[in-house]
Amino acid sequence: MNDRIVLITGASSGIGKEIARIVAARGHTPLLVARNRKPLAALQRELGRGECFSCDVTSQEDVKDLVEEVIQRYGKVDVLMNNAGYGCFGGALDVPIHEVEGMAETNYLGTVRIILAFLPHMLQQGEGRIVNIASVAGLTGIPNLAAYSASKFALMGFSESLRLEYSPRIQVGVLCPGPVQTPFFRGEDPARLFPGPIARQLLDVKTVAEEAVRLIDRPRVKVIPWSLRWAIRIRNMAPGVYFWATKRMYDASRTPPLPHPADGPNPSHGARRDT
Fold this sequence. Notes:
By secondary structure, the protein is of the alpha/beta class. It is 49% helix and 16% strand. Helix 5 (146-166) links the parallel strand 6 (128-133) and strand 7 (170-177). It is globular, with a radius of gyration of 19 Å. Residues 255-275 are annotated as: Disordered. GO terms for molecular function: oxidoreductase activity.
């Protein structure tokens, strides 16, 4: 690959930060994007290349300013790596509505804003690559992650439509990882959030980042790890069997049981975690 201009959202920590390291190590120019500029500046010094930009993807004005600045300075963007997002754990009744709206604004609409802002420039260039970091929760509902799952389902639908509309000029890849060992899980026990077999398969951040970077040149929808890939295939082929098995695993692993709706919201649930 030639030197590419690679814009990475959510680059201040976790998967996005590791993607930036891999991109820089391969000789490309990482454009680091996040709300907080301070950790981005430290990462830029570590990488020795690229540039950092402060941008809140939930703000159309911020995104507009970002595009103008990037195009003015670099003239193009070859690759969009959309990683900004967060999750809020808790039963459907426990997550406050403002967090439900926040996940939709960040995980789905934030990515859409970035894509729609840069897409005309990519089309003018004649080509472009987009890699969206979704989740296995965008392919199947996950207990205690209803709103997060919905935001990722929306991202999956948008990504698929985008591929159909603009391929081959614009290549779109989507990575759907299972649970990842990132700040997302600080203070939370994965065994409480996921059925046992899934909770025991936490992915390493570097592994996920490497898979994301591979999608630049081999754009497609990819589920990791392989065991969840098979689970999604079973879900698509035999949804009734999949639901029965998943429900049994979830019921066996959850402690304590979710409260009855009459008990009201549980203050120990609904904790917000950045991705």
